[in-house]
Amino acid sequence: MSATGIPERVGHLPPRKGEEGSSEAGYNFAYLDEGTKRMIRRAILKAIAVPGYQVPFASREMPMPYGWGTGGVQVTAAILGRADVLKVIDQGADDTTNAVSIRRFFARTSGVATTTRTTEATIIQTRHRIPETPLSEGQTLVYQVPIPEPLRFLEPRETETRQLHALAEYGAMHVKLYEDISRHGHIATTYAYPVEVAGRYVMDPSPTPKFDNPKMDDCPALQLFGAGRERRIYAVPPYTRVRSLDFEDHPFRVQEFTAPCALCGARGHYLDEVVTDDSGGRMYVCSDTDICETRVAEATR
Amino acid sequence: MSAPLLSAHGLSKAYGNRLACAGIDLDVTEGEVLAIVGESGSGKSTLLSLLAGELAPDSGHVRYRMRDGQTQDLADLGPAELRRLMRTDWGFVRQDARQGLRMAVSAGGNVGERLMGMGERHYGRIRGQALDWLGRVEIEAGRVDDPPSQFSGGMRQRLQIARNLVTGPRLVLMDEPTSGLDVSVQARLLDLIRRLSAELGLAVIIVTHDLAVARLLSHRIAVMRAGRVIETGLTDQVLDDPEHAYTQLLVSSVLAA
Q: A182 and B145 in contact by Cβ < 8 A?
């Protein structure tokens, strides 16, 4: 979003050929037309006003398949301003296919600056992770969401889940956690772990690992969630209480890693398992490539 | 005699121009088992849905004495209050267990759901109560983590009963709970319902087409035909000395074993 929060161009004028800031001729700034962006912004504003509530929106066809982040891309396109600096991560990494292609998509259709540095970014689009570097005010985190409905596991009817949300009837949500404990002895849900937002709506932070749930709580950055196929947008405004559901005798806990990152030696980061050869060799490294590279560079300096 | 727990006055419901229920009055007091009998299509199930607030009547009222002693018209309750009432103070045992249970969730989870819905957040206590109730409906503790899809028909109905009774309701509605079960399983289930309703002082409204079930369980009986209650009274009185011609026909239609 631009500093003033006012969209760069209002109205429905077709883009001028070779317009400044847009390097791809024939496309509007950030691909979507202005009418669509305004529609999405209205949904975002409503989502921010009612934290955790899923706002329906008229999701558009995007030049990428569903499941590749069409919801997040539309949210990013709607809030992107010319002064923004965009970072895109997939599983915490800046250099995987999904991250690279979405970053290039916006570089080509909007001409905005892109970065891999968390601290330099104003908008961070993510598929799974929240960066390890604490976010700050003025930053916006955009999540790509496959299944926005946390009650879907227990209730397949959309009419019924809406009713349950409206009445704040969330007993069924704990049934899922109960099933986990009865089957595994502990809450085995490790991602898409349900949270209660601002003491009201239960929300699916899918598909982030529950390791990142505590980072959502009281976060200074704005968090926006876009589900393209399911046509829903929801939000967590800055400094909002986000509480992970649990039982008194089985409190919420995040994953713990015994070894530090094999590359940068960090402890307390979320680690990925990387298979290194065909004979069972493996190593555990930070899933957040930016902080890992920064730490390695600092250590060798 | 205290005021009735639930009373219905002039309940009517039509589907288009087909009348399903017409001007039905009935009362149930605490600890009383009322059987509603009649042939298929006589409006029994519609009446139960009207009483449960699942269907809105075209005319008439259902009043219920809440736990605080206030008698309320169900139509005046908001959807949130009505649903809270349904999952705390009421139970509904369905004919088809698949409508009353979560088939993919373990037996313990099924029993515990209402507790969690009421805000219980202690796993140990929820599980303890679930095991206790499985014992009371004669399901072995070893089956607590199995889903009802692996249960027999009789076990599913008993699990439904446990799931409904765990919150200590005062009124339980039952829609043909024994149909489709073989006779020995039926007998065991009827024994269980009779024992539990007596022990807990439950008010029960049971819909059945089986007069033997009505005779075994109920104190009072209401006979329905074509959407109307044509005869009502004490169960043995109605069954042994039916007044209405249709009731006489029903009673005489039962095959003696």
A: yes
Whether A109 and A27 have beta carbons less than 8 Å apart is answered as yes
What digits encode the pLDDT tens for the residues B175-190? 999 888 888 888 888 9
A68 pLDDT above the threshold of 60: yes
Which of A178, A183, A250 is the closest to B112 by Cβ? A178
Q: Are A148 and A227 in contact (CB under 8 A)?
A: yes
pTM of the model: 0.86
Interchain proximity B79–A179, CB inside 8 Å:
no
Catalytic one of A11, A228, A261, A281: A261
The rounded distance, in Å, linking the Cα atoms of A147 and A127 is: 12
Residue B144 · residue B155 · CB < 8 Å: no
Does A219 qualify as catalytic in the annotation? no
Q: Across the interface, do A169 and B108 touch by the CB < 8 Å criterion?
A: no
* pLDDT band per the 50, 70, 90 thresholds, residue A11: very low
Position A110 confidence tier, pLDDT thresholds 50, 70, 90: very high
Residue tagged active-site, from A92, A264, A280, A281: A264
Q: How many residues does chain B have?
A: 257
Question: Would you state the structure tokens that stand for residue A107, as one six-digit string?
Answer: 């570089």
- Contacts with B141 from chain A: Cβ below 8 Å: none
Active site annotation includes A11: no
Name every chain B residue with its beta carbon within 8 A of the beta carbon of A174.
116, 121
Spell out a b/e string for A204-219, using b for 16 or more CB atoms within 10 Å of the CB, else e: bbbbbbbbbbebbeeb
Nearest Cα to B169, choosing from B202, B129, B127? Answer: B202
From the CB of residue A108, how many other CB atoms can be counted at a distance below 10 Å?
13
Helices marked H in chain A:
34-49, 70-79, 97-110, 158-166, 171-184, 213-216, 289-300
| CA–CA separation, B142 and B137 (whole Å) | 14
Burial class (CB in 10 A: 0-12, 13-18, 19+), B226: middle
Residues of chain A neighbouring B105 (CB-CB closer than 8 A):
154, 175, 179
- Say what the pLDDT of residue B1 is: 53
Are residues A31 and A105 in contact, defined by beta-carbon separation less than 8 angstroms?
yes
